[in-house]
């Protein structure tokens, strides 16, 4: 018998627990030559802001041991462009599309949520209160329980779509933020965004990235991410989408056992464009091999 | 449509200081590739180095299903790649990017190569020669030992003029000084350029001043190679507006007059 892979993130039904991490999968079409993106439980698209953004100066990416630092700076064509040019494509896709949003002020987050609320083809909003690469907003909201709750409330009031709050690992007590946004009405949490880091070119004696600091992702961050999911799971009842360094199914299963209901594949797609599908196939194989009929039995199972 | 696949290494050898030639069996990619495109190469199976490395398609033989790379060892990734042996496999993603715009058959064209920038231009000259174009290659490097591909260009009936910084071969000076003396490129339908950024910038200025169309192949640090991560942004001016384009998916080849150099 085929195991049941279906999971729910708020009112969003996912055929399986695998999605992509925002900013690592474009808007979807970029990866269609390599995998059937409609087989994924959802795709999460690049972060969107109210106004178009040019992003940060180059170099915007540098490799570090088993990881990468990026300082893209939320380059995107703006929400109106997304609604006009990408939403019709999203509507045709036979999978959920999660739109990731970021603002400079609480009002901007609410505005974005309101604009996207009635757009067909969008299944959920992922609210980025944790981007380390923008000066205003971003991380500032994600590092304080009070402002994180404020953003959550404003978005909650502006939309009927499931609201997923994306948490930053760059805080002392991630569970406290998780708890605050749960209380403020979040339907789910994404854990984690990138870790603030930097690299210096010893030949030029200058920071490598054009924006000096960047966000660390990839296998190097996995232990931090698994820990964060573990701590958040102990504090909240709402589902968690786990991410941070997932390269294969074994990594994804660690997140699920730590408490993630779904997982997102990020940096791994750069190395293996088929990574997300291989994660899905590997999870399914694991369930079959271990006689588990429902993925939900594994969620948080490591907590005993 | 681009592919991801394991390609068998057929040959690998050093051709110049720090410079390696590698031949790979990859019929699907060889069949689809056009000059100026690149492959995103996994240099190791481990997680460090993690990312793929972009390398231009140097030559293809479609009948044999073979593609060749020519690369300079500059860091961890290219060093590991150079150590591969015939019979090993290398995972390739490609062909990626938009290639050079080909002229009308029989046109007069100029090709300007600086250092390892010669790599993609051999495939281009292959195609131009098939189109019976009249080709002049301006080839520059720091010294005689570092001059790449001059034999290949000559074999394809291109006229080759060489400049070396130390004068150990051809003209003493850089390729731009050489072009300034050599007037032929001013009458071309297109000038194709690949080399270090400052060199491409100066050639682009020469072309603009002479009102000659040109194309340059740009380099940026790449994450995905397929247009998804936006790490490879380059500034391009079009109709008076400057926008970010993706070197991997919108390029790496861009019209020389549209590039905003900084
Ligand atoms: C479209 C394109 C085509 C290229 N074609 C060739 C070619 O045919 N032959 C050749 O010798 N070189 C080519 N390069 C440059 C080549 O990609 C770099 O030399 C190589 O990535 C260096 O890797 P490394 O691990 O040895 O060096 P490291 O310094 O260890 O690399 C560290 C990181 O920086 C990135 N990186 C470093 N330098 C560059 C660069 N100049 N461009 C893009 N990413 C870089 C690497 O991908 C890696 O993520 C090309 C670059 C681009 C963008
Ligand atoms: C190039 C790049 C761009 C990203 N852009 C965004 C973004 O726009 N919004 C966001 O919430 N997270 C963004 N992220 C963070 C990822 O979605 C993810 O949380 C993080 O990379 C950890 O997962 P990974 O290690 O599997 O990549 C980006 C990450 C990378 C590498
Ligand atoms: S390398 Fe990812 S968009 Fe160009």
Give structural attributes.
heterodimer; A: 304 residues; alpha/beta; TIM Barrel; eight-stranded parallel β-sheet; 16 strands; 32% helix; B: 262 residues; Elongation Factor Tu (Ef-tu), domain 3; Rossmann fold; 2 domains; seven-stranded antiparallel β-sheet; 6 helices; binds flavin-adenine dinucleotide; binds flavin mononucleotide; binds FE2/S2 (inorganic) cluster
Q: In whole angstroms, how far apart are the ends of chain A?
A: 26 Å
Overall 3D geometry of chain A? globular
The CATH class of chain A turns out to be Alpha Beta
User: Tell me, what's the shape of chain B?
Assistant: globular
Query: Biggest β-sheet of chain B, characterized?
Result: 7 strands, antiparallel
Describe the structure.
Chain A: It holds the Pfam family DHO_dh. Chain A: It catalyses: (S)-dihydroorotate + NAD(+) = orotate + NADH + H(+); (S)-dihydroorotate + A = orotate + AH2. Chain A: One of its GO terms (biological process) is 'de novo' pyrimidine nucleobase biosynthetic process. Chain A has 304 residues and is an alpha/beta fold. Chain A has one domain (7-55, 74-194, 218-298): TIM Barrel (Alpha-Beta Barrel), CATH 3.20.20. In chain A, 32% of the residues lie in helices and 21% in strands. Chain A contains nine helices and 16 strands. In chain A, a hairpin with a 2-residue loop joins β1 and β2 (12-14). Chain A is globular, with a radius of gyration of 18 Å. The model of chain A has no long low-confidence stretch (mean pLDDT 95). With 262 residues, chain B is an alpha/beta fold. In chain B, 20% of the residues lie in helices and 36% in strands. The radius of gyration of chain B is 18 Å and the shape is globular. The A-B interface holds A 23-26, 30-31, 33-34, 46, 54-55, 58-63, 65-68, 70, 72, 75, 218-219, 247, 267, 269-274 and B 1-4, 42, 47-52, 93, 220-234, 244, 249. The structure holds flavin-adenine dinucleotide (FAD), flavin mononucleotide and FE2/S2 (inorganic) cluster. Residues 38, 49, 51, 53-56, 70-72, 74-78, 116, 119, 219-222, 252 of chain B line the site of flavin-adenine dinucleotide (FAD).
């Amino acid at each position: 018998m085929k195991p049941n892979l279906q999971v729910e993130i708020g009112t969003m039904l996912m055929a399986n627990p695998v999605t992509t991490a925002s900013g690592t999968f474009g808007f979807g079409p970029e990866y269609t030559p390599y995998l059937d993106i409609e087989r994924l439980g959802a795709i999460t698209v690049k972060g969107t802001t109210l106004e178009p953004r040019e992003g940060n100066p180059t170099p915007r990416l540098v490799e570090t041991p088993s990881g990468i630092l990026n300082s893209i700076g939320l380059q995107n064509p703006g929400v109106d462009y997304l609604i006009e040019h990408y939403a019709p494509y999203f509507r045709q896709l036979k999978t959920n599309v999660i739109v990731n949003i970021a603002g400079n002020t609480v009002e901007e987050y609410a505005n974005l949520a309101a604009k996207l609320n009635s757009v067909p083809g969008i299944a959920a909003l992922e609210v980025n209160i944790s981007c380390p690469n923008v000066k205003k907003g971003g991380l500032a909201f994600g590092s304080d329980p009070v402002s994180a709750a404020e953003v959550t409330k404003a978005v909650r009031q502006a939309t009927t779509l499931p609201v997923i709050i994306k948490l930053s690992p760059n805080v002392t007590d991630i569970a406290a933020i998780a708890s605050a946004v749960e209380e403020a009405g979040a339907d789910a949490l994404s854990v984690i965004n990138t870790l603030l880091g930097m690299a210096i070119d010893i030949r030029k004696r200058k920071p490598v990235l054009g924006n000096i600091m960047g966000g660390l992702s990839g296998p190097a961050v996995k232990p931090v991410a698994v820990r964060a999911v573990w701590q958040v799971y102990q504090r909240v009842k709402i589902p968690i989408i786990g991410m941070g360094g997932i390269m294969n199914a074994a990594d994804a299963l660690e997140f699920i056992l730590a408490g993630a209901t779904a997982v997102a594949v990020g940096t791994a797609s750069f190395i293996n464009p088929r990574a997300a599908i291989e994660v899905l196939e590997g999870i399914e194989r694991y369930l079959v091999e271990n006689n588990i009929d429902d993925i939900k039995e594994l969620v948080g199972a490591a907590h005993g | 449509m681009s592919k991801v696949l394991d390609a068998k290494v057929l040959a690998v050898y050093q051709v110049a200081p720090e410079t390696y030639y590698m031949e790979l069996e990859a019929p699907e990619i060889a069949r689809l590739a056009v000059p100026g495109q690149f492959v995103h190469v996994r240099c190791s199976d481990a997680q460090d180095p993690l990312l793929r490395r972009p390398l231009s398609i140097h030559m293809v033989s479609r009948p044999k299903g073979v593609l060749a790379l020519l690369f300079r060892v500059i860091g961890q990734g290219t060093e590991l790649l150079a150590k591969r042996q015939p019979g090993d496999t290398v995972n390739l993603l490609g062909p990626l990017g938009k290639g050079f715009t080909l002229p009308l058959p029989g046109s007069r064209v100029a090709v300007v190569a600086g250092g390892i920038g010669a790599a993609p231009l051999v495939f281009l000259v292959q195609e131009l020669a098939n189109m019976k174009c009249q080709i002049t290659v301006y080839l520059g490097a720091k010294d005689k030992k570092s001059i790449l591909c001059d034999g290949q260009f000559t074999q394809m009936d291109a006229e080759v003029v060489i400049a070396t910084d130390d004068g150990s071969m051809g003209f003493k000076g850089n390729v731009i000084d050489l072009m300034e003396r050599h007037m032929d490129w001013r009458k071309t339908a297109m000038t194709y350029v690949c080399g270090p950024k400052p060199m491409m910038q100066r050639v682009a200025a020469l072309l603009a001043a002479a009102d000659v169309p040109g194309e340059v192949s740009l380099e940026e640090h790449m994450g995905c190679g397929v247009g998804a991560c936006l790490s490879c942004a380059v500034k391009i001016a079009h109709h008076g507006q400057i926008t970010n384009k993706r070197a991997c998916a919108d390029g790496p080849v861009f019209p020389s007059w549209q590039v905003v150099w900084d």
